[in-house]
Amino acid sequence: MPDRALWRRLGRPLLALATLAAIWQLVLTLTGVPRYILPSPAAVANALFEHRGLLAHHAAITAIEIVAGLIGGILLGLTTALALARFRALRRTLLPLLLISQAIPLFALAPILMLWLGYGLGPKILMAMVIIYFPVASTGYDGLRQTPQGWLDLARTFGLSRRQQLMKVQLPAALPALASGLRMAASAAPIGAVIGEWVGASQGLGYLMLNANARLQIDLMFAALVVLVTFAVLLYFGVDAALRVAMPWQRDRTTPDQ
Q1: Above 80 in pLDDT, residue 6?
Q2: Which Gene3D superfamilies has this protein been placed in (predicted)?
Q3: Can you tell me the mean pLDDT for 17-37?
Q4: Alpha-carbon distance values, 163 to 139, 166, 168, 198, 256 (Å)
Q5: What's the whole-number mean pLDDT along residues 122-131?
Q6: Which of 201, 95, 110 is nearest to 145 (CA)?
Q7: Averaging pLDDT over each range in 5-14, 28-37, 72-81, 166-175, which range is the top one?
Q8: What percentage of the chain's residues is helix, strand, coil (to nearest 5)?
């Protein structure tokens, strides 16, 4: 029923948020935590309204960094996955480098990128790309190499070249695995951008949070965090909706909760 479906999509998340706010307020009431450590939900809501212009300006900067990093990371990761599946010599060289790259802490890269690229949007976009790249490349490559052998044999029977097999058989077969990587990328993209803003920036939600914290405007800091979380959630569900449209056969396999 439409009403029940609307309740599942909107009612339950709103109820969860209301419950979280009630628990938050209850903790403040029972413990007496000072406002400069943990502001009340009402104070955060008031900061969201009073500083809406400031928050919108910095949110726009962070959104540009996140979306640009997401697109760049997806394209680079998918290109890497296709290259790994297509060229064996490249696979032997690049796979160890991919694994080594994951041992480098992201915070260690941020100052280096700032030194090389300055304090503009570039380093933040690149930070988002770096954190997105590996999940997309690894899940895409895993999906490509797990294509059923029978499908490849049939493609060869029809005379498809190696490149045609990769693009017309292996890539569609890898979409479910790649979708998992894209969902992880969407949830991780804000992390890279905000880390870049924390290390060095003059605008963005990460910069605003640090600046508000230094001025003991904790309600504004929490308001910026709420905006960031809201954008991250919307980005995740936007990517998820796009994947459901692109793969209707996967959507049909899932049964909605009753």
Answers
A1: no
A2: MetI-like
A3: 83
A4: 20, 5, 8, 43, 38
A5: 88
A6: 95
A7: 72-81
A8: 85, 0, 15
In the block, which residue shows the tokens 């990587």?
A: 181
CA separation for the pair 38, 27 (Å, rounded): 10
Cα–Cα nearest to 65, from 232, 243, 233, 239: 232
Q: ∠ CA 24-216-120 to the nearest 5 degrees?
A: 105
CA distance 171 to 20: 42
Q: How many residues does the chain have?
A: 258
pTM across the whole model? 0.83
Cβ contacts of residue 245 below 8 Å, gap of 6+?
A: none
Strands (E), the chain: none
CA 161, 162, 166, 167 torsion-angle sign: negative
Which residue intervals of 32-120 are DSSP H helices? 41-50, 52-86, 88-101, 106-117
Instruction: Look at residue 256 and tell me whether its pLDDT is greater than 50.
Output: no
What is the CA angle 96-110-218, rounded to 5? 135
- Number of CB atoms found within 10 A of residue 82's CB: 20
Residue 86 half-sphere exposure, CB side, CA atoms within 13 Å? Answer: 15
Dihedral angle over CA of 30, 37, 106, 143, nearest 10: 30
Q: Both tokens of residue 77?
A: 């990761």
Cβ–Cβ < 8 Å for 136, 181:
yes
Q: Answer whether 143's CB lies under 8 Å from 133's CB.
A: no
145-193 pLDDT per residue, tens: 888 888 888 888 888 888 888 888 888 888 888 888 899 888 888 888 8
pLDDT of 237 above 60? yes
Query: Which two structure tokens, joined as six digits, stand for 164?
Result: 């045609």
